[in-house]
Amino acid sequence: MTTQQDQMTTEQRARTMIIIWFAMIMGVVVFAVIAGVKGQDQQPQEDMLLTMVGMGMAAFMFVVSLIVPNIVANQQFRAALQRGRYETDEEKQQAMNDLESVFMTKFLIGMALLEGGAFINLVFYLVEGKILAYIPVAILVAFMIASKPSQAKLEAWIRNQMENYNLENQN
Questions:
Q1: How many CB atoms lie within 10 A of CB 167?
Q2: Where are the domains of the chain?
Q3: Is 132 within 8 Å of 47 (Cβ atoms)?
Q4: For 14-45, how does the pLDDT look when each residue is reduced to its tens digit (9 = 90+)?
Q5: Are the C-beta atoms of 41 and 123 separated by less than 8 Å?
Q6: Contact at 8 Å (CB) between 124 and 50?
């Protein structure tokens, strides 16, 4: 039995990712505005420990967002290709659906890591009141914006993965 996600076209999948992308960015932006308004009357603390920890966490989350999604995607990609022979048109379409789902998972993991780093800094701003905590938030949101998915990126990623897979298994 196929799920509704398996029956989506590449264009529909790309559109879904754009909606999720926009919602995740807006979640951070709206919370940043709320934190800014709420924290306006707050007297900043002298201690900047949480702000510094937040900056370190933001850098860590950025690096992790570049590594972990690719590791997960590579494992899922190989598992998807090893499931079947993909000789009929239906099997080939199922393979494409599987690979598109892998890209979607990769995208979501990367975005979630960036979003988490941004949110923790906003929470630290609410606790300490240091405007400095907004710097990593702005940087992470910029990376989130730069990660905008598209149908072309989805297709290029699948093509690139297939080429790499074929080169590795060329015996």
A1: 8
A2: 9-36+64-166
A3: no
A4: 999 999 999 999 999 999 999 999 988 778 78
A5: no
A6: yes
